[in-house]
Amino acid sequence: MTQPTDIRRDRHRPLLLDLFSCAGGAAMGYARAGFTVRGCDIADRPNYPFPYHRGDALAYLAHLIATGEIRRYAFIHASPPCQAACSLTVGTNRSQGWGGAHLDLVAPTRALLDATGIPYVIEQPNGRAEIRKDLTLCGEMFGLGVIRHRNFELGGWTAPEPAHVPHRGRVRGYRHGRFYDGPYLAAYGNGGGKPTVPELQAALGIDWTDVREELTEAIPPAYSEHIGRAYLASRTTVGVAA
Questions:
Q1: Do β-strands 15-19 and 75-78 pair in parallel, antiparallel, or remain unpaired?
Q2: Which UniProt keywords apply (predicted)?
Q3: Regarding beta strands 135-137 and 150-155, do their DSSP bridges make them parallel or antiparallel, or are they unpaired?
Q4: Phi, psi of 41 (to 5 degrees)
Q5: Taking a C-beta distance cutoff of 8 angstroms, is the pair 183, 169 a contact?
Q6: Dist. CA 64–CA 141, nearest whole Å
Q7: What distance in Å separates the CA atoms of residue 128 and residue 22, rounded to the nearest whole number?
Q8: Which of 224, 242, 190, 232 is nearest to 79 (CA)?
Q9: How many Å apart are CA 35 and CA 72, to the nearest integer?
Q10: Is-contact 219 147, C-beta < 8 A?
Q11: Is 17 left (phi over 0), alpha (psi -120 to 50) or beta?
Q12: 3-state SS, residue 208
């Protein structure tokens, strides 16, 4: 298990707020990029590798804004629940009525993030039109064992998008009763052909949780490490230019 104790104690690192933090896939990437991370999630997350506040993420952000405590933070990452109208959820499970009944928290999240005046990222999967696709990342860009496309809206800053590397084959698993093999794992659900927990951990680059639900929801740390390094580099460039 990764033990980022030295990361947590370095007070000279910029402070990042990780909203809707789940088990910390994004958090670990930002920590590796050079941030001190504090999370917030409504669920109990004993595997989260950094200090976090358990509670409603939007209520907590509103509290930080109202009290002025938000000024402690240099950057904010938010991953609002993605089940509402997500192409994966709706497309795969349309017959069961999934996807459409979930609350869509993207707009209220953006409104509060804009009110902070702090640079931020909103992350969502493919199929969501509610965010700007300023940056789209894929596991193949980082040599991972998953494709897992994710779109990122960048609030208050910009970053170049890396080239989208062609996929090397299919995602392993069953589709409509037929099994397909390939170099990528299906990092979602529990159906036939789905990977084991150790396979998921290796494919995502996550070793501090062995809870399947957390792994299937996690952002690969490589994504947020790329974003964090890009943001810090942009701030350095601005500082030099000034």
A1: parallel
A2: Methyltransferase, Transferase
A3: antiparallel
A4: -150, 145
A5: yes
A6: 35
A7: 20
A8: 224
A9: 13
A10: no
A11: beta
A12: coil
Token pair of 233 as six digits: 């580099």
Structure tokens at 180: 């397909």
Domain ranges of the chain: 5-160+167-241
Which fold, 5-160+167-241? Rossmann fold (3.40.50)
Would you call 101 helix, strand, or coil by DSSP? coil
Two tokens, residue 6: 């030295």
pLDDT per position in the chain (242 positions), as tens? Answer: 444 444 445 668 999 999 999 999 999 999 999 999 999 999 999 999 999 999 999 999 999 999 999 999 999 999 999 654 444 433 433 333 434 455 789 999 999 999 999 999 999 987 666 788 999 999 999 999 999 999 999 999 999 999 988 999 999 988 888 888 999 999 887 766 789 999 999 999 999 999 999 999 999 999 999 999 999 999 876 544 43
Model pTM? 0.86
Residue 109 makes CB contacts below 8 A (sequence gap 6+) with 19, 57, 58, 78, 80, 122
Q: How many residues does the chain have?
A: 242
> What are the backbone angles phi and psi of residue 70, rounded to the nearest 5°?
-60, -25
